[in-house]
Specification:
The chain has 169 residues and is an alpha/beta fold. It has one domain: Rossmann fold (3-Layer(aba) Sandwich), CATH 3.40.50. It has six helices and five strands, in the order βαβαβαβαβαα. Helix 1 packs across helix 2. The longest helix has 19 residues. It is globular, with a radius of gyration of 16 Å. The relative contact order is 0.20.
Length: 169
């Protein structure tokens, strides 16, 4: 009997992708054979970057993780219900990062709803690493817009893109 491929989905808006995301992606990549990073359109959050720009940044920032782990990492935009997208890409699990207890409360409820929609897809929670647990895209954008230094929160390519975006008229 052939071994079943372990394919996971890590969804988010990634606006912008930051070191906390990369920590979860790197750790998830060690657990699966194929990791799909689903970049959600989510216009309601008023993104700094377009969906195409976010997909490009995530691909760029994850290339080294794929090489290092030997895991196939695919970055795909989506604008559908998460469980519909999970079925479409053939994921057997959804990876969610947790920063704080408040994240757990929300994510626990969401995982229950998702399990009702498709009980064949498991949700796996990965706690944020100690050095990354406080980082959020919202804080990164806010600090950058207000002239703060985000160097320790984002990888170099993303840093340059955020700085360039803020300097645009």
């Amino acid at each position: 009997m052939a071994e079943r491929m372990r394919k996971a989905l890590y969804p988010g808006t990634f606006d912008p992708i930051h070191n906390g995301h990369l920590d979860i992606i790197g750790r998830a990549a060690r657990l699966v054979d194929h990791l799909v990073i689903g970049v959600a359109t989510n216009i309601g959050k008023g993104p700094m970057f377009t969906i195409d720009e976010r997909v490009e940044l995530v691909r760029s920032e994850c290339a080294e993780i794929a090489k290092r782990t030997g895991t196939t990492i695919e970055v795909v935009p989506f604008d559908t219900l998460l469980m519909t997208f999970a079925r479409k890409v053939g994921a057997i699990m959804i990876v969610r990062g947790l920063r704080a207890v408040s994240d757990f409360d929300y994510e626990f409820q969401m995982s229950g709803m998702n399990a009702r929609l498709d009980p064949t897809v498991e949700t796996v929670f990965l706690p944020a690493s100690e050095r990354q647990h406080f980082i959020s895209s919202r804080f990164v954008k806010e600090i950058a817009i207000l002239g703060g230094d985000i160097t320790s929160f984002v990888p170099p390519t993303t840093l340059a893109r955020v700085q360039a975006r803020i300097q645009q008229p």
